[in-house]
Design brief:
This is Nucleotide sugar dehydrogenase. Helices cover 38% and strands 14% of the residues. The protein has 407 residues and is of the alpha/beta class.
């Protein structure tokens, strides 16, 4: 959509016919893009969508932005990247610029994508250009949207880099060239590993504060008054989403390939499991029942979006059910979810429903969370997102992650 707004003619290519149909009907399946924006793009004749890969022959630039998930053993799954590259090499033409944007480990563009594309008989740097530029998207962030977030770019050759910079300079306010595709690939992993390690660390501090009668939220606020050398991170119900808990394990994979390892990544991954188990255990403790009835508020991995990919809230839901708690949920962005093969629907909230449950477990702090309704009617509340602060905690029925003073 940003390319379209800058006057480029854009074709969206996807193998998912449901997405193509949705786009053609003017229905956006991405929360940050409105139906109105999509309809205007379609009406301008600058944008179209298709599942026919013949269009690859007709374009000057191909941007690959396919998923890069993990396999069951937590090693990288590059099947989608490889399939996209195979599709492109059958249609590639001289002079094209191809950019990989999917998050991946250093070396993917050069060692995996480049050889596949060169099976066409054309060669990078001579016949076509190949670059890497990581996606930097924070869903729901209105301050830093796509256009005003600096764009990192690295090329297989200097000329490849220059071609990619030339493209992205036309749509981004700031483009940051780096020396290689490996440097660009590592940049995304460093950003997300930094967050992965620090959030895991602060979650460990939250578990510690529960045992030593200290309010971690008070400590964070006090530490944040230091004008240098400290950046605040906040505890929560585990690190979720399709980037932060995944990307560091891509880095761990390539380090193992080189005979290296990262204890920080390993321990952070372990802590991300432990915080889930801790929240489940504390839920039972606060409810003071062997098989409590639990009302979960919020399943998405961050507020005000409808994305539950790799959400720790789903893990918590699942573990509670496995431990025979009676669990219902409400999330205005998730009308239905599958837990252990069973479909669950988001329930309506009212004072009676809330009061009938042994505990309300807050896992996502959506902007319109009915905090007062919960406080007035719940028997007990376990707040993992610091929805309640200061005087409201004195009501007695509210317990908070990281606040050991609220035993």
């Amino acid at each position: 959509m940003l390319l379209v707004s800058k006057g480029f003619k854009v074709i969206g290519l996807d193998i998912d016919d449901k997405k193509i149909s949705s786009i053609k009907n003017g229905k956006s399946y991405i929360s940050d893009i409105s139906d109105e924006t999509l309809v205007n793009a379609l009406g301008s004749n600058q944008f179209s969508a298709t599942s026919k890969n013949e269009v690859l022959e007709k374009v000057d630039v191909i941007i690959i932005c396919v998923p890069t998930p993990l396999k069951h053993d937590k090693s990288p799954n590059l099947n989608y990247v490889e399939s996209a590259a195979e599709m492109i090499q059958k249609r590639i033409k001289k002079g094209q610029l191809i950019v990989l944007e999917s998050s991946t480990y250093p070396g993917t563009t050069r060692d995996i994508v480049k050889p596949i594309l060169e099976k066409s008989g054309l060669f990078v740097g001579r016949d076509f250009h190949l670059a890497y530029s990581p996606e930097r998207v924070d869903p729901g962030n209105k301050q830093f949207e796509l256009e005003n977030t600096p764009k990192v770019v690295g090329g297989i050759t200097a000329d490849c880099k220059d071609k990619a910079v030339e493209l992205y300079t036309k749509i981004y306010s700031d483009v940051v060239p780096v020396s290689s595709t490996e440097a660009a690939e590592f940049t995304k992993l460093l950003e997300n590993t930094y967050r992965f390690v620090n959030i895991s660390f602060i979650n460990e501090m939250a578990m510690m504060c529960n045992e030593i009668d200290v309010n971690l939220w008070e400590v964070i606020n006090a530490a944040s008054t230091k004008p240098y050398g400290y950046h605040p991170f906040y505890p929560g119900p585990g690190i979720s989403g399709h980037c932060i808990p995944v990307d560091p394990l891509y880095l761990q994979f390539i380090m193992k390939q080189k005979g290296l390892s990262s204890q920080f990544i390993h321990l952070s991954d372990q802590m991300n499991k432990e915080i889930v188990e801790f929240i489940v255990r504390r839920t039972f403790e606060i409810a003071e029942k062997e098989k409590p009835s639990v009302l979960i508020y919020g399943l998405t991995y961050k507020k005000d979006i409808g994305d539950i990919r790799d959400s720790r809230a789903i893990d918590i839901f699942t573990q509670l059910v496995e431990k025979e708690a009676q669990v219902t949920y409400h999330d205005p962005f998730v009308p239905e979810v599958e837990i252990n093969g069973e479909r669950k629907q988001s329930i309506a909230l009212d004072p009676q429903i809330i009061s009938e449950n042994d505990i309300v477990l807050i896992l996502t702090d959506h902007t319109n969370i009915p905090a007062e309704l919960f406080a007035e009617n719940a028997k007990a509340i376990f707040d993992t997102r610091a929805v309640y602060m200061d005087d409201s905690l004195n009501k007695g029925n509210i317990k908070q992650l990281g606040n050991g003073l609220l035993v």
